[in-house]
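User: Can you predict the 3D structure for this chain?
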Amino acid sequence: MASFIIIGAGIGGLTAANALMNTGHEVHVYESYPKLKPSGMGITLAPNAFKALSFLNFVEDIKKVGKPLDSFQIRSETGNLLSAIQSNENITMAFHRADLYVSLFQRLPNGIVSFNKKCVDFKQDQNGVKVTFADGSHTKGDYLLGVDGIHSMIRQKIAPSISPQFAGYTCWRGISKRADILKSPNIAMETWGPNGRFGIVPLRENQIYWFAVTNAAENSKRMKKYSKSDLVLHFEGYHEPITQIIEQTEEEAIVRNDLYDLPKMNRYAYDRILLMGDAAHAMTPNLGQGACQAMEDVAVLSMCMKRQLPINEAFVAFEKERIKRVQKIVDRSRLMGRVGQMNHPVARKLRNGIMTLIPDRLRVKQIDELYQI
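Assistant: Here is the predicted structure, written as structure tokens:
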């Protein structure tokens, strides 16, 4: 069996480590963060993620820490329903990112993940891959998986022409501990209005994950200064319980980030090195597919490796199977953001009217395409 170096201990890196260990490979994960500190906001896993996890035999462990969602809705700022997708027989669940992270981390034996190991260089030859860390230490392995996120050091060195591109909007996120104010505790929704979008995702243990997205300049000084009270004023006039959710969130628990994605990459496989997850195809969160696609990556790589191909050829097979599908989702997510962030009143009115006229069968078809691995 081969030895794998995995750079990045996020959701994608931990999923890959579990999958490779389950098939008998030697694995070690290196994370630049100084220590294990589960954190983050909310995350949704759609049916395609559960199909991937089912192939990897992870489903039952993961389901224990998630909250099932019955449907996803899009509403106007006044509360009028614009679109709705029912979960039906498909599994869709919401998670606190920390719970999902711990569930994946705890499946791994002690010592598999090393923290405070920032990769600063790597070299490959016919014998394997050597990685150098910021502390001066080194490690060697047969293959390297770059799963180190949108700002991937691995990608920056191996494909320097590819860099994150600003989506045109910024996002605040928070966790409120008063899910009892929701009328429908198993429905996730987005509200689209003149001041941007507001998302509500119920979690376990009476929590709500929420996000607020508004058009902004990159690195906007004004947006950096926004306080909780500024956010309440920004979404004043939107339907209940949007401003109440913001008010019930501790100010220090609200985080803000500009949103980015990556332009299309024509390669993920570079002989003994493979880019995966956000390092290869970071997308805006408009479809909730970032983590889902990272999990799909792992399932597809596992399938390719089961064909008994040499591993570098399995990497190429993975690349051929993933690029077209992933890029379609990146593009679709980008388009969804543009539509959702329309700020011209006439364009918004026209958009809302069209959305209410889309037949259910067309919505279902679009969703089925998204969820099909």
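The radius of gyration is 21 Å. The first strand starts at residue 3 and ends at 7.
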